[in-house]
Amino acid sequence: MRVLIVDDEAWARRRIRSLLEREPDVEIAGECDGGAAAATAIAELSPDLVFLDVQMPDMDGFEALAALPPETLPSVIFVTAFDKYAVRAFEADALDYLLKPFEDSRFQAALDRARRQEGDRGQALAAGIERLLARLPEEKRRLRRIVVRSGGRVVFIKTADVEWLEASGNYITLHVGGEQHLVRETMNRMEPKLDPEQFLRVHRSAIVNLDFVKHLDPWFQGELTLSLTTGARVTVGRSYVDRLRRMLQNSVD
Length: 253
What we know:
Layout: E1 2-6, H1 10-20, E2 27-32, H2 35-45, E3 49-53, H3 61-66, E4 75-80, H4 84-92, E5 97-99, H5 104-118, H6 123-135, H7 138-141, E6 145-150, E7 153-158, E8 164-168, E9 171-176, E10 179-183, H8 187-190, E11 199-203, E12 206-209, E13 213-218, E14 224-228, E15 233-236, H9 241-252
């Protein structure tokens, strides 16, 4: 079992590493000191299990998971010092956790549980983490970065830099700085992860970053299009026109 250790505190990583080194069936794939590095490492290394700290300064554990496509998620043992809300969520969704400071026996129990879970991963695991993320406060669910594979590399894209998102079947094309990046995700799953103050769905196949909207234009047969500062034009679906008008009215008010 290949394991990734993620914690912003060096002593905590050493503690987990020392316990894992006793296990003959465990290979330590790597260590990370932050959520952004963890999301990249998960995408690159495909570990079977991650010991994931909850509170980290650059990007917390929840954000790191939310940034990844569900099918790439490994088994996760969360590690937390004081997030009582998170502990309740973990318990409700049967995802294991370690509450710092933890005893060797508690660590062993969590690891044994992960071993048993290893044979039952896939959709059930992804669904469990999705339920966990859904239970968190709204602000914690918002994506700040999206992990994509591009040219054999793993690239971190800030959501603030995404000009608009376009549906491509079960994938989404991110339009960023003249480049396009493909992410395995659906629009219905992506939309609630984005900040509604910044992103607006204007078509069943398009979400725009309002910071890049230049002006609104009439289009064929009464339809509307949004012209972006990048020169792109995005059609506003008829069923989304009222939503757009309400947003514009609220911004004027």
